[in-house]
Amino acid sequence: MAPAEQDALAAREQLFHERVRECIICTLLFASLYILCHFIITHFKKHTDFTAVHDDEDAAVDRIALGLCTFTLAVALGAVLLLPFSIISNEVLLSFPHNYYIQWLNGSLIHGLWNLVFLFSNLSLVFLMPFAYFFTESEGFAGSKKGIMARVYETSVVLLLLTLLVLGMVWVASAIVGDNAASRQSLYDLWEYYLPYLYSCISLFGVLLLLLCTPFGLSTMFTVTGKLLVKPRLLEDLDEQLSCTRLEEAVVSRRI
Q: Which Gene Ontology MF annotations are present (predicted)?
């Protein structure tokens, strides 16, 4: 075998090993986040009214919805922690550039994590969360055989109708705002235009909701903290308290 072919084979083998390593690291990170989110959801779910489910079908539906919600929460937590993870990994690589054991914190891994988070965020936002909600509310079509599959069929139909409704509203809005071929052509490319645009709009709505709810949350937090903590008595006037106590004692003695 020629040296050029050997070098090409070695490069392909190294690239294959890097891809396998990245897949293993991503799987381990997501599995850790999934387990953590499962414990968080089950901890808060114990205080709801849906804990004791006696029907086997309702219990299966509850477990499926719990799995979908756990997956979505894990993706959201991964999206939140991705930026700090990128910054910390970059600082570690700059601090130890020649360390063999941390060379897996490279740009390819971070780029792959960003792509996976973007993919699963759109998947959770557009399909998994609506499916989990409609699945828990579904009972199967009238006249159909009861079971899990009947609920799956009803949920799929409702989700398909909701998707068509949203796409129709986007088409109408596009026709009103810009009636040209470019605006209509951009809607055909769901992955490059529609999903990022929808993700950005919902993210903007979430940020506005956060800015709206943060002052109320801070005021509630300070109110609860003020009720729990004991106020300091360093600046109180002890002579005034002593005179008040003497007056109360005199009043009690007169009544006796």
A: transmembrane signaling receptor activity
| Cα–Cα distance measured from residue 38 to residue 46, given in angstroms and rounded to the nearest whole number | 12
Measured in Å, how far apart are the chain's first and last C-alpha atoms? 115
Q: For residues 78 and 80, give the distance between their C-alpha atoms in angstroms, rounded to a whole number.
A: 5
For residue 150, count CB atoms less than 10 angstroms from its CB and return exposed for 0-12, middle for 13-18, buried for 19 or more: middle
pLDDT in tens, 202-223: 777 777 877 887 777 777 777 7
- What does the pLDDT read at residue 7? 65
10 Å CB burial of residue 151 (0-12, 13-18, 19+) is: buried
Cα 237 to Cα 147, 229, 244: the distances in Å are 73, 21, 11
CA atoms lying within 13 Å on the CB side of residue 206: 8
Among 195, 62, 21, 190, which residue's Cα sits nearest to residue 125? 195
Mean pLDDT of the residues in the chain: 77
- Per-residue pLDDT, 35: 92
Assigned token pair, 34:
């999934």
Question: Under a CB-based contact definition with an 8 Å cutoff, are residues 146 and 57 in contact?
Answer: yes
Assess contact for 68 and 129: CB atoms under 8 A.
Answer: yes
- Where do the DSSP E strands lie in 67-206? none
How far is 92 from 180, CA to CA, in rounded Å?
50
Q: Which residue has the higher pLDDT, 142 or 19?
A: 19
- For residue 198, CA distances in Å to 70, 119, 161, 194, 251 come to 22, 13, 18, 6, 73
Of the candidates 87, 78, 90, the one whose C-alpha atom is nearest the C-alpha of residue 28 is 78
Q: Structure tokens of 112? A: 């792959």
Amino acid at site 22: E
